[in-house]
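note to self: dont lose this again. the chain is below, predicted strucutre after it. 171 aa total, dont forget to put it in the shared folder this time
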Amino acid sequence: MMLLKRAPHSPTQCVRVAKFHIGPPLHLRPSCPPTPLPIPAPRCAVNACAVRYAVTDAFRYAFNCHCSQCRRATGSAFKPFAGIERKALRLTQGGGQAMIYGDPQAAHDVHCGLCGSLLFSVVREGAYVHVTFGTLLDPPAIRPAAHIFVGSKAPWFEIADALPQYDEFPP
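---
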């Protein structure tokens, strides 16, 4: 959200100051004319991001992964993802701005170079990608089937749904 405030050098000139606000609506001083407020894109696959992809909605499996690597990559308690053959996903914009973490010839994560969002992980010797649900614009037909790697889940998080839970990979 952009707020308006008076410039310190001028009692009448207004300047924009970037600031995030949580709480009740803010009221601007009448002497500062309102200006359109830019709305940041909440997800990487939306308009403002540098990297975009297209993927077929033919996912083979979906899980909520609680391993420490997925928690670190997403900054959350788990990573909801769907797996599909790598050839079903293609970058449609900004491929040169993708940030790759890991070995580009083996398993690695692909992030947006603008916002840092984790888009997908390349896994299984490069044959599959794990697409993060939060970056999909349309809801996929598949839903997570289980929680995996709950043996290393965050101790502060309680799983509250009825999905099966596995300490590592499912059988």
